[in-house]
Design a protein that fits this description.
single chain; 458 residues; alpha/beta; Rossmann fold; three-stranded mixed beta sheet; 8 strands; 7% strand; transmembrane helix; DUF2868; transmembrane; DUF2868 domain-containing protein
Length: 458
């Protein structure tokens, strides 16, 4: 998918998983049918999902202003990069880089601080590359605040669909925006140096600058060694010779007016071009290529329940769901509720296989239960059971790919809201120690939208 395809796909997903007004099941069906007609039966998965997202957002946006604002907020502001580069160039051209004295001090060249800063930047980039760090940490934090700034609410379980989309997009788009920000910053740094070099030559045309030096501690030989280390590559590349120690001794400002600064301006300009202008331009091109690649082939995984449900609907396939009750025999009403939940989350043709309940001590059967793969695996517990790390926790640990459902059927009616909350907390606390999160559901009267949202969160 392209960047724009992915944005529309995730926006529509925020209104469909779970279903949120003004989007309806009829709208979802209409978008699916329109996309299927558009791409045909043999259309690829990404092409179908992108077409469906385009059809769906075309129906959603006229009815939901918040969705339109969210989509606009996540769009690419194409003017920022050009404005930043233009501003940097203007600042460089306007800078009195050679100073008002019309003297160029060879031991304090005007671009020295800029050269040192850029060398530090290159060192930081190299260190981050060696550590394989992801540089956009600050960018991710900034993007994470977009939902609150645009949608007026922080993302969370009760957030609006638009805010959930903004939070989701900020996380997924961080690498792309990091590459774009790197491109803009590197290009701006190159433009700043180009402006400074232009300012030097423009002022050199209108005024005569004199070059020389003075030092309390350094001799002419030491100054020549220092200048050879800094300006030697530029001298070798341009053929402009550096003066000897005797010539440098005559360039002391205390001994005379120095010399015309033309060759020193040339040498410093070439050095700045070698150290800043060329590397920054190459880094900007590299970041632009990376951003273009990410924008044209956005890294969006399509293996979650939402995408797979849409693809099965397009292909006419049926999902196969296997559920393993543990130390619990679901009632007929609970089984009907379970099938309703699976049909709502994985498609109306979902085939639900409910295994015979596993009793404590039957752990040898765990090897036969698929926790990963094409068929989603589920383990069904009962809230009425006291959660135990040695039994319930052992099953959860043995099936790391299975989703953990906890059926609340009848518990609240028998014991009240306080006991239900306490028991939920006990289950959550026990499974949190295994880095697992249970999904609580009343299979006698399931909340399909809430359960679907929990399943979509992974």
């Amino acid at each position: 998918m392209t960047e724009d395809d992915a944005r529309r796909f995730l926006l529509l997903r925020a209104y469909e998983a779970p279903l949120a007004p003004p989007w309806t099941d009829a709208d979802a069906l209409a978008a699916t049918e329109a996309a299927a007609r558009s791409v045909g039966e043999q259309g690829g998965a990404e092409r179908f999902l992108a077409a469906r997202a385009a059809e769906g957002t075309a129906r959603l946006l006229p009815r939901e202003p918040a969705a339109g604002r969210a989509l606009q907020a996540t769009g690419r502001p194409r003017w920022i990069g050009a404005a930043l580069v233009a501003l940097a160039l203007a600042i460089g051209l306007a800078s009195p880089v050679l100073g008002p004295s019309k003297q160029l001090n060879l031991l304090a060249p005007p671009l020295l601080a800029l050269l040192c800063w850029n060398l530090l930047v290159y060192a930081a980039i190299a260190a981050a590359a060696l550590r394989r760090d992801a540089p956009p940490g600050a960018l991710r934090r900034w993007l994470a605040g977009v939902p609150a700034r645009v949608g007026g609410a922080a993302p969370g379980a009760s957030a609006t669909p638009a805010a959930r989309f903004l939070a989701d997009w900020s996380r997924r788009a961080a690498p792309l925006w990091s590459a774009r920000a790197a491109c803009w910053l590197h290009a701006a740094a190159a433009a700043l140096v180009a402006g400074l070099l232009g300012a030097m030559y423009l002022r050199g045309l209108a005024f005569e600058y004199r070059a020389g030096w003075d030092s309390t501690f350094l001799s002419a030989e030491a100054v020549r060694a220092l200048l050879s280390a800094v300006l030697g590559p530029a001298s070798a590349l341009s053929g402009i010779a550096l003066p000897s120690a005797d010539e440098l001794a005559r360039l002391r400002f205390s001994a005379g007016p120095g010399e015309n600064a033309a060759r020193w301006i040339h040498l410093h300009a070439i050095t700045a071009a070698l150290v800043v202008l060329l590397p920054r331009a190459l880094l900007a091109v590299s970041a632009a290529w990376r951003a273009r690649r990410l924008a044209r082939r956005f890294p969006l995984a399509l293996d979650d329940a939402y995408a797979q449900r849409l693809l099965r609907s397009h292909r006419g396939d049926a999902a196969a769901v296997r559920v393993l009750p543990y130390s619990y025999q679901p009632t007929a009403q609970a089984l009907d509720g379970l099938r309703s939940v699976m049909a709502h989350s994985f498609g109306p043709r979902t085939e639900v296989q409910v295994d015979a309940p596993m009793r404590q001590g039957d752990e040898e059967r765990l090897a036969d239960v698929p926790g990963t793969g094409a068929a989603p695996g589920f383990v069904l517990f009962a809230l009425s059971a006291t959660p135990e790390r040695e039994t319930h926790g052992a099953v959860a640990e043995a099936l790391p790919g299975a989703r953990l459902l906890v059926d609340e059927s009848g518990f609240a009616q028998r014991f009240g809201a306080t006991r239900t909350a306490q028991r939920r907390e006990a289950w959550t606390r026990m499974l949190a120690g295994l880095q697992r999160t249970p999904i609580f559901i009343d299979l006698a009267a399931p909340d399909l939208a809430a359960t679907d949202a929990a399943l979509q969160r992974g």
